[in-house]
Amino acid sequence: MSTETATVEQRVKAVLARIRPAVQADEGDISLVRVTDAGVAEIRFHGTCVTCPSKPMTLQHDIEKNVKKFVPEITSVIAVD
């Protein structure tokens, strides 16, 4: 893994750390799985987030919006199992 990729991953993790308390308040959690060479951040939902009907909205409007704002190298954020 290149230093540039590690830096992007660290920045994505920092954004997720800021979002995490709100997710954990609903007994869920999120983690970064990886950042692809194409700039896609793959995240995993945990706890109640796995089956939450609001998961798509949380992913698109909260997580992806913030990650792309603070890490412009990221092209999209997707949830993986």
Strand share of the residues? 15-25%
Order of helices and strands: HEEHE
Average pLDDT over all residues: 92
In total, how many beta strands? Answer: 3
Instruction: Order the strands across the largest sheet as they lie in space.
Output: 1-2-3
CATH architecture: 2-Layer Sandwich
Features:
three-stranded mixed sheet, 3 strands, single chain, 81 residues, GMP Synthetase, Chain A, domain 3, alpha+beta
Summarize the structure.
The chain is an alpha+beta fold. 48% of the residues lie in helices and 25% in strands.
Written description of the protein model:
The protein is of the alpha+beta class and 81 residues long. 48% of the residues lie in helices and 25% in strands. It contains 2 helices and 3 strands. A 3-stranded mixed sheet has the order 1-2-3, with helices on one face. β1 and β2 (40-47) form a beta hairpin.
